[in-house]
Amino acid sequence: MSERLRIERLPITHADAALLVEEVQQEYVVRYGGRDDTPLEPDTFELPRGTFVVAYDGDTPVATGAWRLRDDVLALGTKNAAEIKRMYVVPSARRGGVAAAVLEHLERTAREAGAEVTILETGTKQPEAIAFYQRCGYTEIENFGYYRDEPESVCFARLLGVDTP
């Protein structure tokens, strides 16, 4: 990971955020045949109920990530959850620690906002994402959310405040 990496909280509507969100949507089209249709309102990611971040390598936006508080999903014994959304790293910045830095930032800020657990949904056609989350200490949970009944959906959770392996 570049020592020039910085993570900034921005609105999801910011030009750099929108650019990267569109890139991940195009990746979903390639992998799944369509865009992610999960209903998301931009204010979902505004403090104190959520946050959206962009990671920069110097002046270049290279990754995004977000969380939003949820109290309707029971995971690892609590409903006090922050759902991780829009994790994405541009191909040229992958395998360099950027995703781990963004996820660590999201977990820390979600914990500071009062969440006890982070939850997320990904898909079977993203094996590298599944492996990443498992390496970071996430365990598979019952599916939740918009794609809960889709066979390609897989969901994970991790208690906050618990060290990763």
Which consecutive residue ranges, at least 5 long each, have pLDDT under 50? none
Number of helices: 3
Shape: globular
User: Percent range for helical residues?
Assistant: 25-40%
Report, as a whole number of angstroms, the end-to-end distance: 20 Å
Question: Can you offer a commentary on this structure?
Answer:
This protein has 165 residues and is an alpha+beta fold. It is built from three helices and seven strands. The protein has helices at 15-32, 98-112, 127-135, and strands at 5-9, 50-57, 60-70, 81-89, 117-123, 139-141, 153-159. It starts with a strand and ends in a 6-residue tail after the last strand.
Supply database-style keywords.
3 helices; 165 residues; single chain; 30% strand; 25% helix; seven-stranded mixed beta sheet; alpha+beta
SSE layout and pairing:
Elements: E1 5-9, H1 15-32, E2 50-57, E3 60-70, E4 81-89, H2 98-112, E5 117-123, H3 127-135, E6 139-141, E7 153-159
Parallel strand pairs: 4-5
Antiparallel strand pairs: 1-2, 2-3, 3-4, 5-7, 6-7
